[in-house]
Design brief:
Mean pLDDT: 89
Structural class: alpha/beta
Low-confidence stretches: 1-34, 303-320
CATH class of the largest domain: Alpha Beta
Radius of gyration: 22 Å
Distance between the termini: 35 Å
CATH superfamily of the largest domain: Alpha/Beta hydrolase fold, catalytic domain
Shape: globular
CATH architecture of the largest domain: 3-Layer(aba) Sandwich
Largest sheet: 11 strands, mixed
CATH topology of the largest domain: Rossmann fold
Strand content: 15-25%
Length: 481
């Protein structure tokens, strides 16, 4: 049931009153006035008008650091957007990008599901009409430390990231973030992400479920998770890539056969020399094609996009209206501007020498990455969480074939067979529902579904959050046309 407008008014004005009283030194206020007051810290994190913002918005947004390890001095940088309307009635969604080592703010916020996107000049913003904060409160986190503006006072931390510590630090981040934003405690909570976040998202969900078993008042109300073009199972991912490249006419019969022979049992992040060699040959056969989106143009600023399949082992998910293939370049310009960093409360003492969309140091020194997370799926399906997997069908890096092979390996019972889903009378893709999992293919989308098909992506998140099937063809709309 929606809260009355008076409640919404006081929810917005109350933190401001607290801050004013604190600044005036009114120590008698009931909630206290120390710096530990969560509403005081919220106001410190609140972002005012951003450089290059030529439009007004009705929603509040906040950015800053949350410490996840006091002893080492590890802190994760976040950017949080309240829903565009009635935020107190909408769920909270955490979005994570992959890499490992790539920024959720660079990709998730600035070119995918966030409200603020960047013009080609690298200095001006425009409002994304398909932002997911239309239907949810959205939290972006640069994870792990060493990514984006996240940092550690212990330099060796940057060289010792891995799946296990990333999940643990992400849980600690959430617990501390909820302390800073107590009005979101008990809110329906979902986790989503893409690419190498195919590891992050289910692993974080797993540690939340384990934490909740022993928690009482601090339990996180996790309702489900959704991943897109996600690294899931190394064997099936390799198998799916070879088939996709071959069936799309991008590689020869011989290379297809060799990929299956040399790479089938290899680690996705650290393949053997023999696997790397055949991947290099596949790259040559594919040519200068953006393998994250095989039917769209490459960015002219990229002198070479060769060896993408080989580079994949270092950056699973490093990516670059009318499709703009140069979005990564725009982000690099914008988030390096001193005035932008100041507006986002980036601490000059901890800012990177140069902000980058992805960190090579984090990626090249990754410590632990299991060959599969299908065991995590099997465990979490039993808990009743809402679990969805989606896939853009023009991505050659973690293609739709890889995801379908991984789902098939789970051997789930089908409850709703394969069918097309529709958006405004057009086929948006295809879907199949299983016992405990829903799969959605998105037509014409590459590795970053919300970048290539933003309208379809908004339809996707609406259905996921509502717990409904993807829309069928509207016969009334069809007859009216």
């Amino acid at each position: 049931m929606a809260k009355p407008k008076l409640f919404a008014f006081w929810a917005q004005i109350f933190p401001i009153i607290v801050t004013i009283l604190c600044l005036q030194g009114n120590t008698g206020f009931a909630l206290g006035t120390s710096s530990s007051d969560p509403f005081v810290q919220q106001q410190r994190d609140k972002v005012d008008r951003l450089p290059g913002q030529t439009f007004n918005v009705d929603f509040a947004h906040y950015a800053g650091y949350v410490t996840v390890n006091q002893e080492a001095g590890r802190a994760l940088f976040y950017w949080f957007f309240e829903a565009a309307s009635d935020p107190e009635t909408k769920p909270l969604v955490l979005w994570l990008n992959g890499g490992p080592g790539c920024s959720s703010i660079a990709y998730g916020e600035a070119e995918e599901i966030g409200p603020f996107h960047i013009q080609p000049d690298g200095k001006t913003l425009y409002l994304n009409p398909y932002s997911w904060n239309q239907v949810a409160n959205i939290l972006f986190v640069d994870s792990p430390v060493g990514v984006g503006f996240s940092y550690s006072n212990t330099s060796s931390d940057i060289l010792n990231n891995g799946d296990r510590r990333t999940a643990e630090d992400s849980l600690e981040f959430l617990l501390n973030w909820f302390d800073r934003f107590p009005q979101y405690k008990g809110r329906d909570f979902f986790v989503s992400g893409e690419s190498y976040a195919g590891h992050y998202v289910p692993q974080l969900s797993q540690v939340i479920v384990k934490y909740n078993k022993n928690a009482k008042e601090k339990a996180i109300k996790l309702k489900g998770y959704m991943v897109g073009n996600a690294l899931t199972d190394d064997y099936n991912d390799h198998k799916g890539i070879a088939q996709f490249l071959w069936s799309s006419g991008l590689i020869s019969d011989q290379t297809y056969q060799q990929m299956n022979l040399q790479c089938d049992l290899e680690s996705f992040l650290n393949p053997s020399d023999s696997c790397v060699k055949i991947l290099e040959n596949a790259d040559k056969e594919v040519g200068n094609v953006d393998q994250y989106s095989i039917f769209t143009p490459t960015c002219p600023a990229n002198v070479s996009q060769t060896n993408q399949l080989v580079k994949r082992k270092h950056k699973v998910g490093r990516l670059r209206a009318v499709y703009d293939p140069c979005t990564e370049k725009h982000s690099t310009i914008y988030f390096n501007l001193p005035e932008v960093q100041k507006a986002l409360h980036v601490d000059p003492a901890y800012k990177p020498a140069k902000w980058e969309t992805c960190s090579d140091d984090v990626n090249m020194n990754w410590k632990d990455s299991p060959l599969t997370v299908l065991d995590v799926y099997r465990e979490l399906i039993q808990t009743g969480l809402r679990i969805w997997m989606f896939s853009g069908d023009t991505d050659a890096v973690i293609p739709v074939t890889s995801t379908r092979y991984s789902i098939d390996a789970l051997k789930l019972k089908t409850v709703s067979p394969w069918r097309p889903w529709y958006d405004d009378g057009q086929v948006g893709g295809w879907t199949q529902e299983y016992e405990g999992l829903t799969f959605v293919a998105v037509r014409g989308a590459g590795h970053e579904v919300p970048l290539h098909r933003p309208k379809y992506a908004l339809a996707l998140i609406k259905a996921f959050l509502a717990g409904t099937s993807m829309p069928s063809l509207d016969l009334h709309l069809l007859s009216a046309s």
